[in-house]
Design brief:
Layout lengths: L15 E5 L3 H11 L4 E5 L2 H10 L4 E7 L7 H11 L9 E5 L5 H7 L4 E4 L4 H57 L6 H14 L9 H11 L11 H4 L7 H8 L1 H10 L2 H4 L4 H10 L20 H16 L10 H9 L8 H15 L10
Parallel strand pairs: 1-2, 1-3, 3-4, 4-5
Length: 368
């Protein structure tokens, strides 16, 4: 047979043509025409044909559907198919076969029929038209499959990149933590406390889960500016002098400056949160914090959340300049404002989830 009549290379699991026609002779003609190239299924009425289409999802590559049948017409098969699975006709080409094309064919096209073939069929034309459409659908399916594969590959690469970026951020934050001789796990706990506060209370109800994850990742970098603080101050075991404390306070502004200088981070969704938190996690509700003296709602809710998380962790853990306080004393100090004033609503939310936060400290030697 000439090359022009050769069928497309169908996927092994999608190489079946379904012929739906109540006339045995018509089915025989079509079966004889397509059998050399495709697997063939037959149905001798509309109802059984409809069921065969629905059963055939995944292995049918085309349907040849007669219009006039004694039980339900080909058009009725299309209507019911549309009701059962409206999307199926977008992936499975249906050819309507009729001896009397009329105005009703417009409705058939609107329901998703790919082509209308007139009886008596002309074998050469039918084979060419069906093969061309099947080839188009097969190519589109392969393209869609490749696009999905590429999307999956891109998502996996993005996931790996995010993990790498987060790992680098965590490594930097942990290095600073070790340099300041703070307790191990500080940055991870700040991440977890922030996430719990924002996801298990109504302190900031407008945040999405993605927002909360970005904020929690940004919280890891809250003390990144301490890299610019001299060791003599950062690791001093006793109380800082007034001059030393002024230098220590600059870790907030230096942290923001450092984050600004990392181009890859500036393109990351967490950057606005990270910059704000690094600069403002020592601001206080009454305006007595630093570096900008922000007051009340001038402080973003995520900076407020990280601020109380930082105080809670600092009080609960041993540091170079102090021992860990008992849990009851930690809560009393936060409640009475001994470590700075917090938003009353934030305090309510904090105490609501504090029993859960306390679980983060179980098993830490000498703490909680």
């Amino acid at each position: 047979m000439e090359r022009i009549n050769q069928p497309p290379a169908c996927a092994p699991d999608m190489n079946t043509i379904l012929i739906i026609d109540d006339d045995e002779i018509n089915r025989g003609i079509l079966q004889h025409l397509f059998a050399p190239y495709y697997a063939i299924e037959e149905a001798d009425n509309g109802c059984s044909g409809l069921q065969a289409i629905l059963r055939g999802r995944g292995h049918l590559c085309a349907v040849l559907l007669d219009v006039v049948m004694p039980d339900i017409s080909g058009l009725e098969v299309l209507r019911r198919l549309k009701e059962e699975d409206a999307a199926l006709l977008e992936t499975l080409p249906v050819f309507l076969i009729t001896a009397e094309p009329d105005a009703s064919m417009k409705a058939a096209y609107e329901m998703g029929v790919m082509d209308v073939i007139s009886k008596p069929v002309v074998p050469y034309m039918v084979l060419r038209r069906v093969n061309s459409v099947v080839e188009l659908f097969q190519a589109r399916r392969r393209l869609q499959s490749r696009v999905e594969e590429q999307d999956t590959e891109l998502l996996e690469k993005n996931r790996q990149l995010l993990e790498l970026n987060q790992g680098m951020v965590e490594s930097l934050a942990t290095a600073i933590e070790f340099r300041s001789e703070e307790s191990g796990g500080h940055v991870q706990r700040i991440h977890d406390i922030t996430a719990i506060l924002l996801s298990h209370t109504d302190f900031c109800p407008g945040l999405t889960p993605d927002d909360i994850e970005m904020i929690s990742v940004a919280a890891i970098m809250h003390d990144v500016g301490k890299i610019a603080i001299p060791d003599s101050i950062l690791s001093k075991p006793g109380k800082l002098t007034a001059e030393e404390f002024e230098i220590m306070k600059t870790h907030t502004t230096r942290g923001g400056e450092l984050l600004e200088r990392i181009p890859q981070l500036r393109r990351h969704k967490s950057y606005p949160y990270a910059y704000d938190i690094a600069r403002h996690h020592h601001e206080r509700w009454d305006g007595r914090g630093y570096p900008d003296g922000l007051k009340g709602d001038e402080i973003t809710p995520w900076a407020q959340a990280v601020a109380i998380a930082d105080v809670y962790d600092a009080l609960s853990c041993k540091r170079v300049y102090k021992d860990a306080f008992p849990r009851e004393q930690v809560l009393e100090m936060i409640r009475t404002g001994q470590c700075g004033t917090f938003n009353p609503r934030l305090l309510d939310c904090f105490f609501q989830v504090e029993p859960r936060l306390a679980e983060l400290y179980r098993g830490l030697a000498g703490q909680k």
